[in-house]
Amino acid sequence: MRAARTFNLSIMLGPATALIGVFILVPMVLTVWLSFHEWSSQTPFSSARFVGLRNYQDLFGPISVGRDFRRAFFNTAIYTCVSVLALLPLSVMLGLLVHQKRAAGGQMLRTVLFATYMVPMIAVALVWSKLYSPSEGPINQILGWFGLGPQPWLSSPSTALYALVILNVWQQVGYFTVLAIAGLTQIPKTLHEAARIDGANPVQSFFGVTLPLLRRTLLFSAVIAVINAVQVFEPVALITQGGPAGSTNVLTYHIRRVGIERAQGGMGSAMAVMLMLSLIVAIFAIFAMNRKAEEQ
């Protein structure tokens, strides 16, 4: 009986396990294996030569490969932190606004916000390149109404990365607002009514009732936002190509340059492994901070 049950489970789980192994685990294991080899991406895997930890030593060494990797890693960290810190409060604020039944046009606002998430990145890149135009861009023209001079936006190393962050926040805030609304609908109204009866004003009710009960939604949003931000590629490839002066050269774009354009597959694989490990550490840190906050 037990053998028959085990056989049936194997039959049912076999196809899904095989698909996961072929399309997820095999590429991951192959990437880790290649990171310990010197391999040109224009040659077969059989030509890979084992070099041990040399690729990783180069990433953290004083040579140009290491300097470029650390710069891309730093750019990715800045892009991720600023994006997440902007997206979460903004999505909660917009979620509260849309969730209010008294707010006129709530359904329309929800549709408009989520529509930005569905716009193809190529269209977003074209529009925002024009918006950021130093001479004829609408953003600089609006700044001119307030007496502010034209800003270089994408052409200055000090502002280009943050200009891409604004683009990212604009495109994704609708998606995270929908998540926030879904979390808000799960909060019982009786809790807010009890807080109001106890004399809590709207601000005290938000920090005492809404925000604590929205924690799991915010945890999920933070994880997704971090994953999306770390994997940023299209805006950089379509708008800035890593410039100016490497200020927007994020890790995914840098890995493409090294692994595909320069055909340094082993080095690119080592960078991809470091990116994956960094992402795992970041996700664990978020869960650890959430667990600590719950314990307090």
UniProtKB/TrEMBL annotation:
Q: Looking at the UniProt record for this protein, which Gene Ontology cellular component terms does it annotate, in alphabetical order?
A: plasma membrane
Localization (cell) = Cell membrane
CDD domains listed in its UniProt record = TM_PBP2 (cd06261)
List residues of the ABC transmembrane type-1 domain: 73-288
TM segments?
Answer: 12-36, 77-97, 109-128, 160-185, 270-289
Predominant place of localization: membrane
Q: What family does the Swiss-Prot or TrEMBL record give for this protein? A: Belongs to the binding-protein-dependent transport system permease family.
Under what name is this protein listed?
A: L-arabinose transport system permease protein AraP
